[in-house]
Specification:
The protein is an alpha/beta fold. 25% of the residues lie in helices and 28% in strands.
Amino acid sequence: MKVVILAGGFGTRLSEATQNIPKPLVEIGERPILWHIMKIYAAAGFDDFVVCCGYKSHVVKQYFVDYFVHNYDVKVHLGDNKIEYLGNASERWTVTLIDTGLETMTGGRIKRIADFVDNSTFCVTYGDGVADIDVRALVDYHKRSGKLATVTAVPSPGRFGILDLDAADNVTRFHEKPDREMGWINGGFFVLEPGVFDYIDGDKTSFEREPLERLARDEQLSAYRHHGFWQPMDTLRDQRELERLWLSGKAPWKIWQ
């Protein structure tokens, strides 16, 4: 199963750190937050990634091209024009890096990678949020729901879009950023069927607006309630808090060995 990561935004609310690098490469504990997200999925056995690049896409591509250089000891055979990487690879990931456009919205980025998910169920998440989520349980829940889409619902204040849920954990309505309203919100970590592409018009479509709202109206959007740790990295304060947790040795999202 493919894991699609939305990594193309400008990261304007974290502009102090994103002038030279895209937001998903902002580091937590000397590793990009994108790496942390991929480790969460890999811990559940999902290691085939499609990264939707946009802002400074070449920097994301270069990070993975140079991954061994940055993370392993290297022996360079100048006479033989050969490079030898020392040690066993700690990651067995396959990473497909797709430039989905500089101004493309989240829905448009998802639609642009339709040809890379093998016409089968796939995961999607944002490139700036971590959680101690059991991805395998999430995928199993989605399959049991029989819906086109499942969103991970997390409790949070109303600065995020609110999910109205019924007793069966179906999303009855999706609405954005209400004032002073508390409830369950979109925590990313989606599981989607290829039929979701039909709900996305094109590059200017924000996935969090028309597609999710229409899926909810069509009773095709279920919610997986996550009661554990979840934290987006929206601001420099968020980045510092995640850094503090990582350096404490007790980062809740570190669910891998």
